[in-house]
């Protein structure tokens, strides 16, 4: 018992120290970066407020959500706080400005996060289609994967093609160098990541797993995750030189050996430092590598930071 308590006290000190390190860095360097003061006129249609003929796919800083469809996962006040990473519906996330969705499914087609389940994936697809019907120039990256430990939903690729066919941008390396204006009226890059089924092939309407990469570090230590994200980003090529999307997730996650297991208080250790990460990327020479930037519990400030940096790229400020 004494050993357990000692270990927990050590962990709490480590978390406190790491939170202070990030706060001190923020106070020392502030969070100003090219485009940081940009305020979009309309987040729901933010791509259309920029110069679509200059907005290249590979230069967009895509605001994304981590475990996007968890707003109603589990049982309220019982299991939900341990798995919910977003409080908004998929539709509301898109209206706020989210453009990359991370959806996990199990064999029966329900959205899941580990062993906890939520609504059927139809809810996600219907929200996406509703948003697309209300906008004209917004491109979405829809990543759908079979959750670890689960079997693939049967014929799920055909389901996605049937549901989103008219909007799907086909898998093609040339897409990265195209502008949004050149892709329209197609508007969805759908990355399907099955665990056992065959991956989508080149030229198909769905994109394979290799086109959306990240380096996930499972930790609840904020400065550790911050620096891990920075290290892995530094190892990437500039966005103009690669033919895949690379995602950085501004998140930390509860750990089984720590008494704080609810997602929100844990992930809030790093959430306030999204702009600091962008600033540090630029200061350390990696500003041309940031592309998909995701978070838990997305908010307007996070979206605005991504849009501002995107606009700065269009204007040649970075």
From TrEMBL:
One BP annotation, GO: lipid metabolic process
Q: Which segments constitute the Phosphatidylinositol-specific phospholipase C X domain? A: 54-192
| CDD domains given in the database record | PI-PLCXDc_plant
Checking Pfam families in the record gives:
PI-PLC-X
Question: Where does the record place a coiled coil?
Answer: none
This entry's Gene Ontology molecular function terms read:
phosphoric diester hydrolase activity
Which PANTHER family does the annotation name? PHOSPHATIDYLINOSITOL-SPECIFIC PHOSPHOLIPASE C X DOMAIN-CONTAINING PROTEIN, PTHR13593
Q: What is this protein called?
A: Phosphatidylinositol-specific phospholipase C X domain-containing protein
């Amino acid at each position: 018992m004494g050993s357990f308590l000692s270990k927990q006290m050590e962990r709490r000190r480590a978390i406190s120290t790491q939170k202070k390190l990030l706060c001190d860095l923020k106070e020392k360097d502030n969070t100003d970066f090219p485009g940081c003061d940009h305020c979009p006129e309309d987040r729901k249609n933010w791509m259309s407020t920029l110069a679509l003929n200059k907005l290249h796919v590979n230069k967009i800083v895509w605001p994304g959500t981590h475990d996007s469809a968890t707003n109603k996962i589990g049982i309220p006040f019982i299991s939900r706080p341990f798995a919910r990473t977003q409080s908004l519906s998929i539709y509301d996330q898109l209206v706020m400005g989210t453009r990359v969705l991370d959806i996990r499914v199990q064999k029966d087609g329900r959205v899941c996060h580990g062993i906890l389940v939520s609504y059927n994936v139809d809810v996600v697809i219907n929200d996406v289609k509703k948003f697309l019907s209300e906008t004209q120039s917004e491109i979405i990256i829809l990543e759908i994967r079979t959750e670890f430990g689960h079997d693939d939903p049967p014929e799920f690729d055909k389901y996605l093609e049937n549901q989103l066919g008219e909007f799907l941008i086909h898998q093609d390396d040339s897409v990265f160098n195209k502008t949004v204006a050149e892709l329209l009226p197609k508007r969805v890059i759908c990355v399907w990541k099955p665990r056992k089924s065959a991956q989508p092939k080149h030229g198909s309407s769905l994109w394979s797993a290799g086109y959306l990469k990240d380096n996930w570090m499972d930790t609840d230590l904020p400065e550790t995750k911050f620096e891990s994200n920075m290290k892995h980003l530094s190892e990437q090529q500039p966005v103009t030189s690669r033919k895949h999307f690379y995602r950085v997730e501004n998140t930390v996650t509860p750990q089984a050996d720590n008494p704080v297991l609810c997602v929100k208080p844990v992930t809030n250790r790093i959430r306030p430092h999204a702009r600091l990460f962008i600033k540090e990327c630029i200061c350390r020479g990696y500003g041309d590598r940031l592309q998909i930037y995701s978070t838990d519990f997305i908010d307007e400030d996070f979206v605005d930071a991504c849009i501002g940096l995107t606009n700065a790229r269009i204007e040649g400020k970075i």
